[in-house]
Amino acid sequence: MTETRLKALVALGANLPSVAGAPAETLVQAIDALPAEGMVIRAVSRFFETPCFPPGAGPDYVNAVIEVRTALTPEQILAALHRVEMHFGRDRQVRWGMRTLDLDLLAVDGLVRPDRETQARWRDLPDADQRRLAPDQLILPHPRLQDRGFVLVPLVDIAPDWRHPLLGRTAAELLAALPAEELGQITPI
């Protein structure tokens, strides 16, 4: 019997040094740590420098996206990502704060978790609420990936034809819908 392998997309980001060194080195070592967690790396985007948000709130970020194959469930993938974050000193006390490593599970195959309505509610959450509210369960696809150039630019680098299972648009189409001035600030390293 063949083991089921799911395709997962993971966003990586860092803007503080970790035990591995500078943010780019942290991303490299985090990617290297994932096979021990049951994930086979299939594609790695280029690394991109992205301005910190809000402007002046800290050092710029280094961002990337990877594609992995795994027999893990989405919840097991998320738990593995959190273990790797902790290894590199991630502190989850401040939402959207500076960080040594951020690993976000963007999508797993075409799965929608926990359901379409919950995903849509988090996707459409007003900006003011996004800063203070965090879901207590896994939401797939990531509810704000379509709004984030720092996710879409590296995603398009490796999977331009990935299609959002609810919005029906490809990664390239989602990226094209973002403001040019935002995208102009995201540069390959």
Structure description:
The chain is of the alpha+beta class and 189 residues long. It has a single domain, classed as 2-Layer Sandwich (Alpha-Beta Plaits). Helices cover 31% and strands 20% of the residues. The chain has helices at residues 23-33, 74-87, 116-123, 127-132, 149-158, 171-176, 180-183; strands at 6-14, 39-44, 48-50, 61-70, 102-108, 187-188. Strands 1, 2, 3, 4, 5 and 6 form a six-stranded antiparallel sheet that branches. The longest helix is centred in the middle third of the chain and has 14 residues, at 74-87. The radius of gyration is 16 Å and the shape is globular. The termini are far apart.
Question: What is the 3D form?
Answer: globular
How much is the radius of gyration in Å? 16 Å
Number of strands: 6
Helix content: 25-40%
By DSSP (H or I, 4+ residues per run), the number of helices equals 7
Binned strand content: 15-25%
Identify the CATH homologous superfamily: 7,8-Dihydro-6-hydroxymethylpterin-pyrophosphokinase HPPK
What separation lies between the terminal Cα atoms?
A: 43 Å
SSE order in H/E notation? EHEEEHEHHHHHE
CATH topology descriptor: Alpha-Beta Plaits
Q: Can you tell me the residue ranges where pLDDT is under 50 for at least 5 consecutive residues? A: none
What count of domains describes the coordinates?
1
CATH architecture: 2-Layer Sandwich
- The first-level CATH class name: Alpha Beta
The helix/strand class is alpha+beta
Rounded average pLDDT = 92
Largest sheet: 6 strands, antiparallel
Pfam families: HPPK
GO molecular function: 2-amino-4-hydroxy-6-hydroxymethyldihydropteridine diphosphokinase activity; ATP binding; kinase activity
Pathway: Cofactor biosynthesis; tetrahydrofolate biosynthesis; 2-amino-4-hydroxy-6-hydroxymethyl-7,8-dihydropteridine diphosphate from 7,8-dihydroneopterin triphosphate: step 4/4
Organism: Pseudodonghicola xiamenensis
